[in-house]
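Predict structure. Input: Glutamate--tRNA ligase, 454 residues.
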Amino acid sequence: MTAPIVRFAPSPTGRIHIGNARTALLNFLFASGQGGRFVLRFDDTDQERSRQEYADSIVVDLDWLGVVPDLVVRQSDRVAFYAAAVARLKASGRLYPAYESADELDRRRKRMQARGLPPIYDRAALKLTEDDRAKLEAEGRRPHWRFRLDSETVTWTDLVRGESHIDCASLSDPVLVREDGTYLYTLPSVVDDIELGITHVVRGEDHVTNTAVQVQLFRALGAEPPLFGHHNLLVNASGEGLSKRSGALSLTGLREAGAEPLAVAALAVLTGSAESVHPVAALADLGPVDLARLSRAPARFDEHDLWTLSAKTLHGLPFETVRPRFAARGLPDDAVGETFWLAVRGNLERFDDIDGWWAVVHGSIEPVGEDPELLAAATRLLPEEPWSSATWAAWTTRVKAETSRKGRALFHPLRLALTGRDTGPELAVLLPLIGRARVLARLSGHAGSSRQEP
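Output follows.
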């Protein structure tokens, strides 16, 4: 089997969201799992709305997820291909000029609906003579160009939905070229898929109805259509669709809020599939993708689930994965950093929380004193270094024997004095990291004070 070539084709008209990430990731994992290629294609023919800043942010967002394209192309650089395709379609009689205005078409659709007829284009433009067209153009009208569909039922085996079909007799001949000569989505998309050798088109189910037209267009241009797979869409917790224009759940926003990219990827890929959502340690753990295991129903994406999964993902990440992030923050990326990471990762909600725990271990903390008598005894009984994970148990056993404190009455005041926090990592692990000098200073500073209330 030939290795697949797939594409993710966003329009740079806004910031991509978690639903767009689903499409990108399904394509990337589908191809990479079979030794294929992933093409990032910017559908930027809409010059009024396309922005370079959005294209740049899409690249950053994909890189954050771990999706690295093998090739990046922009439709704005490829207009010569589209012009050549238009010429071929005109020459073969499959592309014809039509002169109706938007208002005229709207009135025509309403009349057909009132008569109980399907509101499809009646091909009136095909009845125009050369003289008719010349007269219309003399009036200042410029044609848009429609693709003449064959009256057939297009069938395909969808990689997600199985056997699928659309009766083209129920469709209007689509407009491929506007009056101003610019191209609508369908023509550049098909031409690029041909020129780039795309073998599999994996996209959202909102594109199902486009498939029949595109299959005919592929064949009209002398190419065999790729295989198609239309995955279910993500909706928000209220069941509403996601939109780049609204900015909801954008990858940029999630990244800036501290979401873990592997958690975003896991939810984007696994939500609405036969596999339960779970944390992963690497993007490759989500592949290979079996598109047939995706549900047909829309899948709800709950942001609360993301933050829960993000924390769980952090708790399981090995140090090698976070080592570059340690270095970027000026934290040690050696054995000291690894020991610290393994001690505190289970208490992080977001990676940024690491700074607070680094301060607990190596910096100064707010004084929190509780049970001065206990802290004074703990100070006297503090063992000499070197310390190990067994030091905490040995020390607290001696303090318990002298003070008769036990349970929370023993451990909670010590935790407050040593960390300034009510909860946190196991002190058996944390104590050697803090070190005797800091422990002694914190105990001595609190032994004569009472707890400060916020």
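Residues 78 and 201 are 20 Å apart (CA to CA).
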